[in-house]
Amino acid sequence: MMASPEGSEMRQGPEGAAPGLLSVRDLTVTFPTPRGPARVVDGLSFELGRERLGIVGESGSGKSMTGRAILRLIRPPGRVTGGLTFEGRDLTSLSERQMRAVRGARISMVMQDPRYSLNPVMTVGEQIAEALRTHERPGRAEVRARVREALRSVRLDDADRIARLYPHEVSGGMGQRIMIAMMLIPKPALLIADEPTSALDVSIQGEVLRLMDDLVRARGMGLILISHDLPLVARYCDRILVMHAGRVVESCAASELHRATHPYTRGLLAAVPRMDETRAELPVLDRSAWGGT
Amino acid sequence: MGRDVTALRIRDLTVSYGETRAVEGVSLDVAEGESVALVGESGSGKSTVLKAITGLAPDWTGGIEIFGRPRGHRPDKALAATCQMVFQDPYGSLHPRRTVDAVLTEALRIHGIRDDDRVSRTLSEVGLDARFRFRYPHQLSGGQRQRVAIARALILRPRLLLLDEPTSALDVSVQAEILNLLKRLRAELGLTYLLVTHDLPVVGFLCERLAVMRGGRIVEVAPVAALRDGAFADPYSRSLHAESLRHDTEADP
Predict the structure, then answer these.
(1) Which residues of B touch A273 (CB under 8 A)?
(2) Residue B249's pLDDT is what?
(3) pLDDT, tens digit, for every residue of A229-246?
(4) Number of domains chain A contains
(5) How far is the first Cα of chain A from the last one, in angstroms, to the nearest whole number?
(6) Cα A115-A117-A120 angle, rounded to 5 deg
(7) Which one of A52, A286, B177, B214 is most buried, counting C-beta atoms within 10 A?
């Protein structure tokens, strides 16, 4: 299905630090269009340890497709090539059945809007229990205890009551915390969060992200935070990749973002209105500068 | 501001959806040429205020006056010519099977206006050239669609524009273009804006005053200078500002 040039070789991080959790080499995602194949991800490579990596970009930059490709969720006619090594295993060579054992259990994903990613006809408790039973065979009493513990871990203290609610009965912020609880219950090593708070109010965004951050750090997990929001990613990640038109245009430590050099990154930073805004006009990206669209 | 004409006067507005009161006892004046923001979190009632003004939320009590003319509870054609709205999602607010031209001429036809130049003039005002006139929404980018939505609102030459999160569905680089456009149009056409947003920095760029809403009520009206110095009187406004500031400052440490 996909090329696996280096098999399941364990790779070192770029700084030669801890062995990598995930290694992505020359990842390319292509979709056919009437005007020929479109490369939505174009030769992306990065190494991820047990750290927090932010992937930032605007719509169409390929950031979400990257997250989906890692989980092998790109369906035909989309085509994926390149190498994906996770915990020393070559993901590209796994069968669909083996891959199902990776999804959720070892790598899980939180998506943008809990209203769409939670099952509307199941209670919160049943859904978390289902996530647990998919990967383990716990007894009934244990399921109940683990569901309660999962809800408490995301600071939903009234766990028994919340477990009986349906998704439409919870707020957006609560829904996203439930989603995180569900994704973390099988104890994955990597969490991919794709715009996890874009559907939430700013005051709740901070709360949800701090919670996710605490859990990821406490469990020593890796995190890939995908977002269009540069300040948010800078705040909650160690390292940042800025994507544009399927490629990484800039890669830097989050703390160095303000020293970004690529005109696209600089343009994005400048285009955001600031709280102490005094500019009469916002600078607009000159897309011709790097052949963008 | 300036001539002291009141573009919009809202008195003790209460809006209900069935049993639920979404807005309670809101009063606000917007002077002609002014740009005022309604800010707050989801469910604070800010969009509902706009819906009551345009007639999309007919179950309301209190008073709404637009340029001195009280608004009734029925659809009001004359009012539509003075007051128009731009919605958040340009994907949802444009008819998918109508060309830009059809969207723009419909309003003119309803109002019996025969003016062949107006469509192309309005398109050029929002920065779209003639090539776009006969395109369908799916042939436009998000930013171009929002320009069409703004053109649709402007075609009847309104004096008051209601803007409901006009840039929150857009990428930041596109947002900058649309915000610049809205600022320029306001100056060129002498428009009055009532902007609904959750994004405080956008308010700082586009408005002079902001009304902070919570639980259907206005808790405070402040000048935009408060966004810079944090001088809000109400504790809720202060916390909203602090949370947003915390988010905002990371981009530019």
Answers:
(1) 176, 179, 199, 201-202, 204-205
(2) 61
(3) 888 899 899 999 999 999
(4) 1
(5) 31
(6) 60
(7) A52
φ, ψ for residue B65, nearest 5 deg: -125, 135
Question: Domain limits at A70?
Answer: 1-103+238-271
Task: Catalogue all structural domains in chain B, each as residue range(s) with its CATH number.
Answer: 6-249 (3.40.50.300)
Using CB atoms, pick whichever of A228, A231, A271 lies closest to residue B248.
A231
Residue B120, classified by CB atoms within 10 Å of its CB into exposed (0-12), middle (13-18) or buried (19+), is: middle
SS (H, E, C) A113-176: CHHHHCCCCCCHHHHHHHHHHHHCCCCHHHHHHHHHHHHHHCCCCCHHHHHCCCHHHCCHHHHH
Spatial strand order of the sheet with A247-253 comes to A107-110, A190-194, A222-227, A52-56, A239-244, A247-253
In a domain, A163, yes or no: no
CA–CA distance, B163 with B40 (Å, rounded to integer): 15
3-state secondary structure A212-227: HHHHHHHCCCEEEEEE
pLDDT at site A200: 79
Inside any domain, residue A159 = no
Separation between Cα atoms, residue A206 and residue A224, nearest integer Å: 17
**Is A91 part of a structural domain of the chain?**
yes
Q: Please return the burial class of A134, using the count of CB atoms within 10 Å of its CB with bins 0-12, 13-18 and 19+.
A: middle
CA atoms within 13 A on the CB side of B123: 22
In a domain, A206, yes or no: no
Read off the CATH number of the domain in which A30 is found: 3.40.50.300
Reported pTM:
0.83
Point out which residues pair with A25 in neighbouring strands: A83
Of A201, A255, A273, the CB nearest to B205: A273
Q: Which residue has the higher pLDDT, A17 or A89?
A: A89
- For chain A positions 217-236, those within 8 Å of chain B (CB to CB) are 228, 230-232, 234-235
Flag if A230 and B198 touch (Cβ within 8 Å): no
Residue in B closest to A57 by C-alpha: B171
